[in-house]
Amino acid sequence: xxxxxxxxxxxxxxxxxxxxxxxxxxxxxxxxxxxxxxxxxxxxxxxxxxxxxxxxxxxxxxxxxxxxxxxxxxxxxxxxxxxxxxxxxxxxxxxxxxxxxxxxxxxxxxxxxxxxxxxxxxxxxxxx
Length: 128
Ligand code: THU
Description:
The chain is an alpha+beta fold. It has one domain (4-122): Cytidine Deaminase, domain 2 (3-Layer(aba) Sandwich). The protein is built from four helices and five strands. It has a five-stranded mixed beta sheet with strand order 2-1-3-4-5. Helix 2 (53-63) runs parallel beside helix 3. The radius of gyration is 14 Å and the shape is globular. The model has no long low-confidence stretch (mean pLDDT 98).
């Protein structure tokens, strides 16, 4: 059976507003109660105002009151699995800490790693 978190990311990827890049991404975050929040990338004609799938998902979760997260899934249609961009790594670190990141593609290839390995020596609130 497919991991429900990956299935959710695959499904929401279909909603991506990727008019400019044509690069659709889906993300899903799971909180400690098991609830799943999803997001897709939403592009903008200015390009720079584009928001990645990961940030849409985590901001949706935060705005719904979720606070503790166990896993984040990211799905794109690439042979080499697509990781979160630098900005998303910073935002995910802020809200999820050293969470499990599950990368997957449409062919069913998956890899699970910790955010700390993708984003070592992060700057965060512990420095303030
Ligand atoms: N993108 C994401 O949504 N998440 C990633 O992990 C990588 C990049 C989006 C941003 C933009 O809409 C498109 O993919 C191409 O960069």
